[in-house]
Amino acid sequence: MAAETGAAGRPAENMETKNEQEEQIVTPWDVAAEKGGKIDYDKLIDKFGCQRLDHSLIDRVARLTGRPPHVFLRRGVFFAHRDFSDVLDAYERGEKFYLYTGRGPSSEALHLGHLVPFMFTKYLQDAFKVPLVIQLTDDEKCMWKNLTVEESQRLARENAKDIIACGFDVSRTFIFSDFDYVGGSFYKNMVKIAKCVTYNKVVGIFGFSGEDHIGKVSFPPVQAAPSFPSSFPHLFSGKDSLRCLIPCAIDQDPYFRMTRDVAPRLGYHKPALIESSFFPALQGETGKMSASDPNSAIYVTDSAKDIKNKINRYAFSGGQDSVENHRKFGANLEVDIPVKYLGFFLEDDNELEHIRTEYGSGRMLTGEVKKRLTEVLTELVERHRRARAAVTDEMVDAFMAVRPLPNMFS
Predict the structure, then answer these.
(1) Which residues pair with 281 in a beta bridge?
(2) Where is this region: Disordered (predicted)?
């Protein structure tokens, strides 16, 4: 079967993701906008060969689930997809699917950008009543971040607690770390995938160089394998035709372009994707948050005082340089980070529109917007902290136990 077609009729699965266009770089490991500007998502869609998530699909989700669309759908946080319409077609015919997402455990605590895919995945799981597998790529971070095996495994369990705190249903959710789970049917799929991808292709997709160790080159099949149901025989035995839907940030697209090219050759459906934009750093929309700069992000471990301080000191404002000018010209909402953060986490559409209108006209000042954002994020982080404190080691063991899921499709 032919590879998918991207921009200018080129095979999307073979398109480079690094340094193909000088104006911006988006790979699973590096995100940078052009000369300190914003990520151009229209160019990214054209380059990767995915599709815009339009209102007809969002309306269809609401109709099929009987639930209002998630705020991340309504406001375009999840903005692109691959074959999501095929998943909805199959669901409408009575065919179920499973969800797959993941986390690379490289830090002790998650920041708000890390929470976005898990918050959305929980909505999908609850709305469609489907099983979910969550991959913790402790092996990847051991190779990329120069962590020891033991430290990578420890961080995986700590991050699992934050993921569980998002409210996932243990009767429909399997969390696994690569160091613990890879083997058996999963490893067989990895080998089958690896045999289908040439070295030239993997270099073209991921931009590996001669300086990268072979562990990096061999990793993509590990992230690809959960896309195929036979990788989880304790869950999906005899269900090789089950479709997979992957919610993720768009920087993960290269992994799954490769996977989608391989899938038909191995007898599986191509995994479908629903992809999000990046959660911006406090300092502005030049890329995504960085765990290496604690002042670029709000962490789930931050105190109320930390959150207030970070927003007031570091959140880039689109307000004017004086009250007089602000009243006259209003705020530039296109660059204002507090407004963008409210777009992610303020549930009330009417209040958000009121803030945008008042702030954009100059009737509301920057300090008022930052105060409201501080309230919203403090409540969110405190709620997460309480939920995380209730997660025990026994609960982690239950989510990570290799066992059938009793309420998988009910």
Answers:
(1) 284
(2) 1-24
3-state secondary structure of 402: coil
At 305, is the secondary structure helix, strand, or coil?
helix
Q: What is the DSSP string of 59-123?
A: HHHHHHHTSPPPHHHHTTSEEEEESHHHHHHHHHTT--EEEEEEE---SSS-BHHHHHHHHHHHH
What does pTM read for this prediction? Answer: 0.91
**Residue segments in the chain with a per-residue pLDDT below the cut of 70:** 1-23, 36, 286-292
Largest Cα–Cα distance of the chain, in whole Å? 69
Residues in Cβ contact with 49 at an 8 Å cutoff, skipping those fewer than 6 apart = 4, 5, 6, 7, 12, 15, 257
- Give 22's contacts (C-beta < 8 A, 6+ positions apart): 34
pLDDT on residue 12: 40
pLDDT of residue 1: 40
Residue type, 20: E
pLDDT of residue 146: 82
- Alpha-carbon distance 210 to 16, whole Å? 16
Q: Write the single-letter amino acid at 194.
A: A
- Residue at 144: amino acid letter: W
Whole-number Cα distances in Å, 57 to 53, 85, 91:
7, 7, 13
Q: Treating both helix axes as pointing N-terminal to C-terminal, what angle do 337-345 and 349-361 enclose, rounded to 10 degrees?
A: 170
- Polymer length of the chain: 410
97-129 burial, b if ≥16 CB within 10 A, otherwise e? bbbbbbbbbbbebbbbbbbbbbbbbbbbbbbbe
d(CA 91, CA 97): 7
The H or E element spanning position 44 is helix 41-48
**DSSP annotation of 207:** -
Distance, CA of 305 to CA of 290 (rounded, Å)? 21
Helix, strand, or coil (residue 275):
strand
Q: Are 80 and 248 in contact (CB under 8 A)?
A: no
- Distance between CA atoms of residues 403 and 399, nearest Å: 9
How far is C-alpha 373 from the chain's CA centre? 22
Alpha-helix runs per DSSP H in 166-290: 178-181, 184-196, 199-206, 214-218, 220-224, 233-236, 253-266
Return d(Cα 136, Cα 399) in angstroms, integer: 12
Residue 26 phi, psi dihedral angles, 5° rounding: -135, 105
